[in-house]
Amino acid sequence: MMLAEWLKPCLQQVQTLKKGNALSHALLITGADGVGQESLAHEMVKDLMCESDQGIACGVCHSCELMNAETHPDYRVLDGENGTIKVDQVRSLVQKISQKPQVGKSKITLITHAEEMNVNAANALLKALEEPAENTFFILTTSQSKSLLPTIRSRCLLVSIPTPSLSDVQAWLSQLPEHSELQNLFWLTTQPFRLLSLQQQGKVSLYADLPSKLVELLQGRMSVSDVLKGVDTSNIEDYTNGLGAILHQCILHSAGGNLESALQEVYPILISRISIQGLMVRYTALQQLKEDLQKTNLNPIMQLTYELNQW
Ligand SMILES: [Zn+2]
């Protein structure tokens, strides 16, 4: 997949610094949620790992070959996507990165969702950033740079990804398979990499079907249990998110905002059934339900069934 247009200037910035031998040992890639921090980071790692002196990865040196085969021993990733990054994980990486590289010149550690580092982990990283070994790089990604220790932020070269315009997002999506389905989900999100991730997780139709199912429900042609067919603990958060996003968009529209075409049919039916005031009440209730999903003593599907019975 091609690097997104809005990520290219960020990549070039780092390539120029690499070529001029002026690159900082630590890079912090920031930007709004879902603009492509990780995608950019992976491209950067390839360039930095390359043994040539040029800015862009040559593609033919031993390091480039190993990177393309995803087996480079001097490149490590710590992913905070699924929860807290702990001090032992950081320490072990720091210990490995302080050894001699096994293959080329550089060693790189990528820490994604770096805001997930707890205080001890962050302090362990800070220590490593303060005494950088030669040819070692730490690349951090986050969408919440304010949650990082200021002392870590100040040690990093900041690479700030701009938020792409809707037409940039559309152009980028158009190279994906079944992209028209994704463009129909703009009521849910316009974050390009969130849409990509939904596609990779096979969740596009779950969301895309929600507005029409809701129409059927509100018009009495479908029961709540029909609408919730296939809901289980692995995807109930998606249903709750989707329903919440529909309500949110309808509330915005009632205040004069645009309405995505996928919601044209459901909006007037919702308004006539539960009124604008009701939209807000239901939206608040759904947000509460979303919080409650974390509590193990509740039956979430029963909760969602109860909620939809109020619509
Ligand atoms: Zn190379």
UniProtKB/TrEMBL annotation:
Catalytic class of the enzyme: transferase
Protein keywords: DNA-directed DNA polymerase, Nucleotidyltransferase, Transferase
Highest taxon, organism lineage: Bacteria
Pfam families attached to this UniProt entry: DNA_pol3_delta2
Reactions catalysed: DNA(n) + a 2'-deoxyribonucleoside 5'-triphosphate = DNA(n+1) + diphosphate
Molecular function via GO: DNA-directed DNA polymerase activity
InterPro entries to which the protein is assigned, alphabetical: DNA_pol_HolB, DNA_Rep/Repair_Clamp_Loader, P-loop_NTPase
EC number: 2.7.7.7
NCBIfam families: holB (TIGR00678)
PANTHER family on file: DNA POLYMERASE III SUBUNIT DELTA, REPLICATION FACTOR C / DNA POLYMERASE III GAMMA-TAU SUBUNIT
Protein name: DNA-directed DNA polymerase
Organism: Marinomonas sargassi
Gene that this polypeptide is encoded by: holB
